Amino acid sequence: MGAHHHGPAKGLSRWLFTTNHKDIGTMYLWFSFAMFILGGSFAMIIRAELFQPGMQLVDPAFFNQMTTLHGLVMVFGAIMPSFVGLANWMIPMMIGAPDMALPRMNNWSFWILPPAFLILASTLFMEGGAPAFGWTFYAPLSTTYAPPSVTYFIFSIHVLGLSSIMGSINIIATVMNMRAPGMTYMKMPLFVWTWLITAFLLVAVMPVLAGAVTMMLMDVHFGTSFFSAAGGGDPVLFQHIFWFFGHPEVYIIILPAFGVVSQIIPTFARKPLFGYDSMVYATASIAFLSFVVWAHHMYTVGMPVAGELFFMYATMLIAVPTGVKVFNWVTTMWRGAMTFETPMLFCMGFLVLFTIGGFTGLMLSIAPADFQYHDSYFVVAHFHYVMVAGAVFSMSAAIYYWLPKWCGRMYNEAMGKTHFWISFIGFNIAFFPQHFVGLAGMPRRIPDYALQFADFNMLSSIGAFIYGASQILFLYNVIATIVAGKPTSDEKTWDGAEGLEWTVATPAPYHTFETPPRVK
Amino acid sequence: MLRVSSNPVLDTVVKLATTAVAMFAFVFVVMVPLYDVLCDALGINGKTSGEAYTAVQAGVDESRSITIQFVATNNEGMPWEFGPSVTRMVVHPGASNDTVFHARNPLPRPMVAQAIPSISPSRAAAYFHKTECFCFNQQPLDAETATEMPLQFIVDRDLPADIRTITLSYTIFDVTDMVGGAVAAR
């Protein structure tokens, strides 16, 4: 390391004009946490309303705006940017690159994101209210019957789509061109592999989402009839286009989480990852299959039987590579010298709960059974098991795992473990009962419900409040670590950790790997 | 592998950006038309052909009787009175049949309507041929007037044996704003 290199600029301009991958990663992470809190507060309003049957706190129109914005903010504002932030921080350090391949574009792809969400959030204060048609914005709800604010919603989707595409191009360009000498593709850490594949998915499907909202824009304002039967279009076409984007999208969310878990479990099992090659191939297979299963979200639209069968079997096929991954993680732990620090606890929580979510996914994939599950709380329970216990748990694990490397201070382990257990318990109290109310017939996206669901809904709300509160503890722990955590300068925070990111100084200097390392 | 630039990073970026633009175009120029083509070709989605069928002389199969049910629905906000003159007919495959739907515009202004057909079971759509249908065109109607709209159809002799009842449903949409005042005044 040269002794003369300069550190970051001072003041606000450091953040506005920075092209440093660590600064941009940090901004992505803080932004996504802010969105996590915002989307979480929408969820708290939803759960407060559902605490008891009958109309309690908000009117149904506002309730619908909450379910819509909760989904949009969590998917596009919290989970996706958080993993992009992690990619910014870790990918250059993991492959021995000095920075991302396109630092200036990196700055842009972050800075167009806050305005996009400002526009989306501002729809709450517009006449007619925010979008209330669900995060899947099915036509004609989002066209013929949409509030006037739908135009702002479309614009914000365009902008955040652009941000995602730019971010993914940057990640692919970095991984393909900036690897240190000797870092072959099959030596890359799995987090880099899963992100490379995710970035390809993003480049392929974010434009499809942009196409869908552009068609909505044209239907609403320019007299076309893509989704209007009156003019020769078809609302079902919207669902096909949306889910052609939407199903790869759910793997965009979960694949980086798989990568994180594949980094952390070997560290605390003190064994190399079992079946590295099969992990890579499984990730690629999942990504490929994600393009041919979209219509399993729409079994009830009236598809021909042959279509239902095709999408059913293709969907079930995804369980095979996913199963390979789960078994590999378990086998990595088998006979390992395991310890249970906070990141490992979150990964094990992930493993158990994600597997449950995967199994309910298999139940939903069965076309004839899905006619009962469709649009019920069973679906809500399923996707929160894979999104929250999958993506968010692994993100929490990643923060605890790499935070000491980032800021050179150790977090409070007792507080971290407390965060895990409160999250784990709160999460299960919130979402496990939803399986049962769903199977018993409670539909999703309703502000009021039949009396027989009252007890489980109250339980669910209590769990959600517990889970929500535990995130405040998380925030406190992270800030306390950055401000006043116990300083550490160990290059390896964890004795079982492997990888280039653990060979640089702690805290990670502003510039790393200005001379590329040699990978043997 | 094709190289578009000697700078490897630029090469990657150009290829990926092109892919993104191509995927955006893919939605408009492939997915939308392909959807219509597939629905047409496979006869799925309950869509009948939007064009008049030219009858072929194949003889009437008097050994089979098919019940045809007619359903009429107004799309939300459509004020017309709209319905079939008979709600069910029993027909033989191969025979040409006529019926009418009546419509009345109760508003004091001219309007244009478009009827969208749907067949149930959707498998029958490919075997239900219309030689004449008011749904082929937009239907203008002057203020406070009524009309009879003709429908002429043939059930194909190759209709699968297990189908004994076909439901033909029309939803009528107000398209006055879409076509503009010119047609409405016609």
Distance between the ends of chain B:
60 Å
Question: What integer is the average pLDDT of chain A?
Answer: 95
Unreliable residue stretches of chain B: 181-186
Q: Over the alpha carbons, how many angstroms does the gyration radius of chain B reach?
A: 23 Å
Query: Looking across the biggest beta sheet of chain B, what order are the strands in?
Result: 3-1-9-5-7
* CATH architecture term of chain A: Up-down Bundle
DSSP helix fraction of chain B:
10-25%
* First and last CA, distance of chain A: 20 Å
CATH architecture of the largest domain in chain B: Sandwich
Your description of this structure?
The complex is a heterodimer of chains A (520) and B (186). Helix content of chain A is 67%, strand content 1%. Chain A has 520 residues and is an all-alpha fold. Chain A has a two-stranded antiparallel sheet with strand order 1-2. The mean pLDDT of chain A is 95. Chain B folds into 2 domains: 1-42; 66-184, Ctag/Cox11 (Ctag/Cox11 (Pfam 04442), Sandwich). Chain B is built from 3 helices and 9 strands. Chain A binds chain B through residues 101-102, 165, 168-169, 172-173, 176-177, 203-208, 210-212, 215, 223, 225-226, 228-232, 234, 236-237, 240-241, 244, 302-304, 307, and chain B through 8-9, 12-13, 16-17, 19-24, 26-28, 31-32, 35, 39, 42, 44-46, 50, 75, 114, 116, 122-123, 171, 173-175, 178.
Task: Detail the topology: elements first, then pairings.
The complex is a heterodimer of chains A (520) and B (186).
Chain A: H1 12-17, H2 21-49, H3 60-95, H4 103-111, H5 113-122, H6 150-177, H7 190-221, H8 235-269, H9 276-289, H10 305-333, H11 342-365, H12 367-373, H13 377-407, E1 409-410, H14 413-439, H15 454-484, E2 486-487
Antiparallel strand pairs in A: 1-2
Chain B: H1 8-42, E1 66-74, E2 81-84, E3 88-91, E4 96-104, E5 111-120, E6 128-133, E7 139-141, E8 146-155, E9 165-174, H2 176-179, H3 181-184
Parallel strand pairs in B: 1-9
Antiparallel strand pairs in B: 1-3, 2-4, 4-8, 5-7, 5-9, 6-8
